[in-house]
Design brief:
Strand content: under 5%
Helix content: over 70%
InterPro entries: Ferritin-like, Ferritin-like_diiron, Ferritin-like_SF, Ferritin_DPS_dom
Organism: Corallococcus exercitus
CATH architecture: Up-down Bundle
Order of helices and strands: HHHHH
CATH class: Mainly Alpha
GO molecular function: ferric iron binding; ferroxidase activity; heme binding
Pfam family, one: Ferritin
Structural class: mainly alpha
Keywords: Iron, Iron storage
């Protein structure tokens, strides 16, 4: 029987996603450009934090994946880690372009479960954890894109590009999970 309890990483992302949704709601009520910019920067920093956590997770999983068929999975995790690193850099650059400061301090986002040793976890478990995290990222970008579409089309386009790449990651992980 599959363990249906949320993994610590997914739980942390769900909390981040909830916080981003609250910020979106606040953004709709803000009537000053400065306030909207501040909210936009907060949302982008939340996306940056999510991406940095993804880099850590994929890197850790690439190093600990073992067993029959693990080479293809390790290669995919390594590739996704590098692509997530690129996402983080692109988000950080955009935050700076908007006059903000990229926040790489993950604070409470990192749970003890995210830093635990992965030894003994199966490839299927690692793939499922990464797929769940990709789905959270996809949902987050889908909610952020409309917020930025009219306020900041450049950021909206960046988020659309990142969404497309996250969808490709999820598809690749799903293919690896298929028997």
């Amino acid at each position: 029987m599959a363990d249906t309890r949320p993994q610590p990483f997914v739980t942390d992302l769900q909390e981040l996603h909830r916080h981003a949704r609250e910020q979106l709601a606040a953004g709709a009520r803000t009537d000053t450009a400065g306030g909207e910019l501040k909210i936009g920067l907060t949302l982008l920093n939340a996306a940056l934090a999510t991406t940095v956590v993804c880099v850590r997770r994929y890197t850790r999983h690439a190093l600990c994946a073992a067993g029959p068929g693990s080479e293809a999975v390790k290669a995919a995790f390594g590739r996704h880690a590098r692509e997530q690193q690129d996402h983080a850099l692109r988000l950080a650059e955009r935050i700076q372009q908007l006059g903000g400061r990229p926040d790489f301090n993950l604070g409470g986002l990192m749970s003890s479960g995210d830093t635990q040793d992965e030894e003994g976890r199966t490839l299927v478990e690692l793939l499922r954890e990464n797929l769940a995290a990709e789905r959270v990222a996809i949902e987050t970008y889908r909610e952020l894109i409309p917020y930025f579409a009219e306020r900041d089309p450049t950021t909206g386009r960046l988020l659309e590009e990142l969404l497309s790449e996250e969808e490709a990651h999820a598809k690749a992980l799903q293919v690896l999970l298929e028997p």
